[in-house]
Amino acid sequence: MLTDLKTALRPALVLTTVFALLLGLAYPALITGVAQLAFPHQANGSLIRDGDRVIGSELLGQKFSGDRYFHGRPSAAGADGYDAAASAGSNLGPTSRALVDRVKADADANRTSPAQSVPADLVTTSASGLDPHISPEAALSQVNRVAAARDLPRATVTALVRRHTETPLVGVLGQDRVNVLALNRALDRTAAQP
Asked: In terms of domains, do 8 and 71 share one?
């Protein structure tokens, strides 16, 4: 009886061990190696560096405040927003008073005139709370504020937004978008030039 049990279990244990080694170690190591060779920037988190210092990632939004910078989408990730360890939406429903009050306050803060409409992505959070992009319309709606705060010509700031507008992958996957961190870095470089 014990011999029959050992005979029956042996193939299962051998196959489990083989597949654990193959699919749990060998395959991930192979894919990681290929990614490091073919796409090292993306495989290492699409990090953005300023010299030797990492200042962010192309894939994660950051909080920018003040009139001198373009602002991204609001974030519900963590207590202060943009916390990658607490990636989540707000889970507030359309009848939530807290959501209505927050959206109204964000709309009022982004509106430069009573008649101006505010792009939806400046008042709504993304599902992860970490979206690094805004729509070109959302970026263009902030041009007057940023240009005035930096004493730059409006045309210069508008041109920066246009240069940093990314188009859909192969012309169909996704939509036009602007990476807020990349745009603000370009803005800092432009403002630093004489």
From this structure: no
Instruction: Please count the CA atoms within 13 angstroms of the CA of 126 that sit on its side-chain side.
Output: 16
- Return the CA Rg of the chain: 24
In this structure, the answer to whether residues 75 and 124 fall within a common structural domain is yes
Give the amino acid at 143.
V
φ, ψ of residue 50 to 5 degrees: the values are -120, 95
- 27 & 95 share domain: no
Helices 180-192, 154-163: crossing angle, 10 deg rounding? 140
Report pLDDT digits (tens) over 6-63: 888 888 999 999 999 999 999 999 999 999 999 999 999 899 988 899 989 999 989 9
Query: What are the structure tokens assigned to 121, written together?
Result: 């992505």
pLDDT digits (tens, 9 = 90+) for 164-176: 999 998 888 889 9
Question: Hey, which residues does 57 pair with through a beta bridge?
Answer: 47
Query: What is the per-residue pLDDT for 127?
Result: 84
User: Which residues make Cβ contacts (< 8 Å) with residue 167, sequence separation at least 6?
Assistant: 176
**Residue 15 sits in which domain range?**
2-41
The pTM of the full predicted model, rounded to 2 decimals, is 0.79
